Amino acid sequence: MRGWCSVDGESAPLAGFAVGVTAARRHEELAVLLQRRGARVVHAPAIRLVPLADDAELLAATRECLAAPLDYAVVTTGIGFRAWLEAADGWGMREPLVSRLGGADVVARGPKALGAMRSEGLTERWSPESESCAEVLAYLLGKDLAGARIAVQLYGERLEDLTEPLRAAGAEVIEVPVYRWARAEDATPLRRLVGQAVAGTVDAITFTSAPAVAATLAVAAADGLEEPLLEALREGVVAACVGPVTAGPLTGRGVPTVQPERARIGALVRALAADLPRRRARRLRVPGGLLELRGHAVVLDGQLRPIAPAPMAVLRALALRPGHVVSRAELCGVLPGRPLVGGPVWGRGARRQADEHAVEMAVARLRRGLGRSGIVETVVKRGYRLACDPRAPGAGFA
Description:
Blueprint: E1 5-6, E2 18-21, H1 27-36, E3 40-43, E4 47-50, H2 56-67, E5 72-75, H3 78-90, H4 94-102, E6 105-108, H5 111-118, E7 124-126, H6 133-141, E8 149-153, H7 160-168, E9 172-176, E10 180-183, H8 188-199, E11 204-207, H9 210-222, H10 226-235, E12 238-241, H11 244-251, E13 257-258, H12 265-280, E14 282-286, E15 289-293, E16 297-300, E17 303-306, H13 309-320, H14 328-334, H15 348-370, E18 376-379, E19 383-386, E20 396-397
Parallel strand pairs: 2-3, 2-11, 5-6, 5-8, 6-7, 8-9, 11-12, 12-13
Antiparallel strand pairs: 1-17, 4-10, 14-15, 14-20, 15-16, 16-17, 18-19
Helix pairs in contact: 1-12, 3-4, 3-5, 6-7, 8-10, 9-10, 9-11, 13-14, 13-15, 14-15
């Protein structure tokens, strides 16, 4: 069968799984890292980066920073800090800005922010190990901020949880909007990804920013799918977020998330590669070996074998009760796009025959996909069953 390939769980832990990528920036890097681990990537950008080279608000914030000495400056991202200096360079303000920042106590949120400011000859006063804005806030609130001037470099959205407590402590806060996020111009790929998540044909969705989460939920809401999407993310589809800030809009809605220890794309992929097979793979003993169900494929005899959605839906239904008969009517109910009920009374007999035929065709395709007889058994006049001993070693969830 075309599409078969050898698979090693250690080198390709995501083989057989479909992973959505909502990132706008560095989405190619994220996709490559996922594909190297075997994933099928579904790219659906949720947001886009809006350049601010000519932005009047950024220019005004820069002038405000230069108008008087700064007591503190918070650098939140490396790319944002570099973009700010590049814009300032275009306005002839780069050297005065670096000089002004050099006279302040600079707080860098993480290693990338540190690297960017150090490359300009600046030295940080402090940097949190957690890369958390909450820890930055706690550090600053430990100072006497009455009358202090603080510049806070934003990264795509307002940071009210950081800036408002600083103002409440008596500080004058200058928000520096280095770049902004906007909705993706074409929402079709994201709408398609939402539909796939709701249907269960995608196994995980990765998020690298809170605005991407918000945009995804907004697109789902516009199609009447916000609650079904949240339910899918709560029950089966894995939400992989680069850090707690990104995960915030989901955790607030009761969605469990996978997060790396460090907010890095590589760490995010490693965390997902460790978690997704544990959540979404199931291993069962079948005649002659071990069968592992993955998102859109199975692993049998060490071979990854792609399975189409309808046959895979049948296999999953059979695997829920290995060794037990599942009726054709039950299997018809799990086929994508084929509800059991509906239609006029006079057409029910024909409908039932069509449904049973659809199940038979799905089972036939499943058997061809598995490439081995004796795994899916026909029980005459009753239905089908997966030949499996659930008590055998190796059976159960991966």
